[in-house]
């Protein structure tokens, strides 16, 4: 009780509450505008949050992260354009419902399912926190090294059909983390005798380039795209009642979201895929999926909104980010010398609980805002895409330049912007670079400290958690190879039957 | 022959125009880094392998070369898609906007954040063909809002313009702090 009161007092400050409101309302608006997304917004806001208290900065970023997917459902349902990438599955059933004249019902269900998913994940976290607090101290250097290695492997194998590309980009991220002065021996690595490379490549500069500047360039160079107009009429509160009829789908989908959010490198897409497949297989009306099924819509939205809360678990408990957005948040911790990991749960549990409470408040604020302001948001999403590019480019400058007033940083960010544009055009993943950068640094430090106490290779995995992590890593690799071989056989059989050329690869 | 065909099938993958150009460039970059390892990293004496400064760059670059080679082979084995050079042209077009961005970066410490931002957004509106009165007005409002929020309210570190030094006393202090 004392702990909760301490957490509440942490939240009950005007700057924390302001960050919560600005973050959640801003996140909805950013999510609703196709072509922006939470990653762009967080990348831009990140340097500005460094001057805030950690709780204020994290609340603001969590607000954007947790609420953007709510907003992303609006254009997905009404104009068949997902506001954020993870809302793509929402278009499958949301837009057909709109075409049938059920736009307000689809939106209402999407909001309600998102709210359910968000709240479900936070409740899971509150229940899991004490368990985490017990397990986390058993994570020493070798366990954290293995968990980081597992994160890298998962992010690579999770990109089915692009494993080689994800692998090379993750390794590129690890390479970027090694540039500059080596922290133990202070020798230069890949500086090419250039003074501006001695301090290394800043994560924020790379993030801003790959996410924000690349998106601005893409919008500026590409053809103008005017999002279609839409309007919604009817009572948006009805979905809250209707959701109870589909509580099984909502609960299972949210559980998938929590589970996938907790596993580094997996995230929303896998959670959505599993939830959607489950909902379709157990539905009384599976043929309606893809043609306007409320269950499909609920599965998609509940699963993706359950992820942000759960993604905070590996970040807070082990200091290991599971995807790009939590990797960005990690830098907020580092700037304020708050080291996420076992000691955070032992020494600052009130801070952790305050973050969870902030997530609850954020979901409530977002739901109220959406139920009252959807009409206004429909006007905002009409911003011409090239003008949006101008806005993102202007804001990117603040993000990069305010770090240390360096023109070189801006040039590096612009270089990564072009690189990100190429990756986006080729549909190659960006996230492995960021995770490679963050996890690569963690692996280097942890391997060095872990090996100092290891005599033989087997000693490395002689503790229970280390052994479990090692077995899980082996299992992931074996299962992936098996899946690739199986898919390849199926493809060959299909091609023999149809003599058509497939272009998919495991 | 059948085995070669099976291998080719195994590496086939989904891709977009320009993929092979990227795959070639990335592989060449990775191989270049590989050749630079001895000169750009140090192998320290009396230091175990896990603490060697060369270890992690080698692991990373080794992985880059391995995966980039596989990616390149995948690109070679897959069906050719037309539009490769048109796509490369698209990538190159982005350099024009990168140049504008860098000019903006260089202008800020000279003419100040607000004037530079106004000039940048208005110029880009004209350049992208969106110079309607509504958009130009929106660009002005947006520029002022960004400067007020980030420089005046959030106090982010953006240097004051040299040009502000020439302003009259009353306005100069205000401009140096908030604009």
Detailed description of the structure:
The complex is a heterodimer of chains A (506) and B (179). Chain A has helices spanning 2-11, 14-32, 37-49, 54-78, 88-99, 103-135, 141-157, 163-178, 195-198, 203-221, 238-243, 247-262, 268-282, 294-318, 324-335, 342-347, 349-380, 385-404, 407-425, 431-451, 464-498; strands at residues 180-181, 188-189. Chain A is mainly α and 506 residues long. Chain A has 2 domains: 2-142 and 226-403, no CATH class; 454-506. Chain A has a two-stranded antiparallel sheet with strand order 1-2. Chain A starts with a helix and ends in an 8-residue tail after the last helix. Chain B has 2 domains: 2-82; 94-178. Chain B is flat, with a radius of gyration of 26 Å. The model of chain B has no long low-confidence stretch (mean pLDDT 88). The longest helix of chain B is centred in the middle third of the chain and has 28 residues, at 84-111. By secondary structure, chain B is mainly α. Chain B is 72% helix and 0% strand. The interface between A and B is large, with 77 and 79 residues. Chain A: Residues 17-435 form the DUF112 domain. Chain A: InterPro entries: DUF112_TM. Chain A: Keywords: Membrane, Transmembrane, Transmembrane helix.
